[in-house]
Amino acid sequence: MGDFVNQRIPTADKDDLTNRISWFSTQIALRWKRCHRNKIYFLNKHEIWLNEFVYKSKCQSTFQRHAEKPSRKNTREFSDVSARTRRRRTQELVSHHSPAELAFATQSGYTKRGKRNVAFVIKKDASTGENGRISLLNLPN
Fold first, then answer.
1. Where are stretches of biased composition, namely Basic and acidic residues (predicted)?
2. Domain for residue 72, yes or no?
3. Which of 10, 40, 54, 79 has the maximal Cβ count within 10 Å?
């Protein structure tokens, strides 16, 4: 099958070709199962799709439409995930930025959302260090 697809799409590299074949075989399997493994029903229902994909060499556009679908990765809100997932998602931020930069970014975010008290506490905590004490009585209104 790889030779057949490669003849139809000569510019495809090996990885791209492998992805196309994988996607095509998965689509065939899903559609075959939905048709209850009935050949006549499968061919009647999916004849246009098969002709478009195989014989008219439109697999390029079909594959691209599939590849452009948004990823489901990181679709859950940050507040809804576990501590382990939060650590994994923020690992790159922590490794590339200093604590002062992260504290300032956090402070700016809270200020933009109108949470001035939280931003003030973060600012004071960042300026006094980890061992310093913050007086919560001096919060701005």
1. 65-79
2. no
3. 54
